[in-house]
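From: lab user (bench 3)
To: helpdesk
Subject: output format question, protein + NDP

Hello, I'm new to running complex predictions and I'm not sure whether the block I got back is the full result or only part of it. Here's what I submitted:
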Amino acid sequence: TKVLVSGANGFIAVWVVKDLLEHGYAVRGTVRAESKATHLLNLFKREAASGKFELFIVSDITAPGAFDDAVKGIDAIAHTASPFHYKADDPSEIIDPAVKGTVGILESAMKYAGPQLKRIVVTSSGTAVYEPGATDAKSTGVLNESSWNESSVTEVREKGRAASQWAKYCASKTLAERAAWDFVEKHKSEISWDLTVLNPPYVFGPILHEVVAPDALNSSVAAFYEAIFTNHKTPAELAHTQAGWTDVHDVARGHVLALEVPAAGGELDAVNELKIPGVYAPVGSPGAGEDFQYTTRLDNTKARTVLGLEFRDKRATARDSVHDFCARGWVY
Ligand code: NDP
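Helpdesk reply: Thanks, we reran it on our side. This is the complete output you should expect:
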């Protein structure tokens, strides 16, 4: 069974590739440039040598037909490639690759993958369900996969370039996920496969992808790193920062289970985790955030029941992440 993983050099994707290879799958990854292939081919040297791991270059995921070649003969697809950064000036810089990349891979799959393709998993995000406006102190709202983050889309529509970077990223994820469900609905009589979407909150854990220095970290691990090693926020501010998070091992497992579990088809199978207090508590402030007020909960029932995912202990994620930083000499 061969699985296509788009954006194979990303933080989450490399863990997905690793999990797939360890579970006997063959993997075809896509990366944007030859220069992004070397590290991966080294990391999965044995599998590359035996033909179990190969890479295709897809230089522009927004180009029509970008994935036409990459999808050929594939049994399943994990589409992870999408920008996650806070640097977009015009919102289209982040929304276009998210939406066009997602619709493009579905379209290529429909036309060229072949009838053996059974399942496509799209890495959406907790930000596509998490409504910032719903987080006022009085809210007792429980959010799950049926919730949508509409307010970020509205903010981007109304403010354009002046919208916050967070809203631009969130909108890209809401719009991309919605476009995926719309595509499947519109073409359901023409496709042999079904769709599953994952909605993880912040994903933390050790990194396998190529990162030369802390300032080049992917956005989520950068947030974890900065909380510990830089002093942008006071311990009190950090202790009261709200964010759900989950472990990259679990997110990778979630992707693979979402490809395997028949009942996951057509579902939004969240890999959401409950918000916990003190997530960002810097070292040296044990117990900070104990007075934290839960305002919003992300419900991970589907991930646990439909996928059978067992989430790792938060302390294990934190420990593994810090050990990884230490091993790289990134500790100050
Ligand atoms: P990374 O930044 O590590 O990886 C992103 C991947 O997408 C890379 O392969 C990157 O390629 C590719 N990519 C980014 N922008 C473009 C573009 N314009 N055109 C083509 N490819 C592009 O991030 P993550 O691994 O964290 O993110 C992977 C997916 O998971 C994304 O869809 C993200 O939204 C989602 N996600 C992440 C969460 C997290 O906390 N990390 C939480 C929830 C969802 P290149 O290296 O060439 O830029």
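A quick orientation on your result: The domain at 2-131+144-208+244-275+300-327 is CATH 3.40.50.720 (Rossmann fold). Let us know if anything else is unclear.
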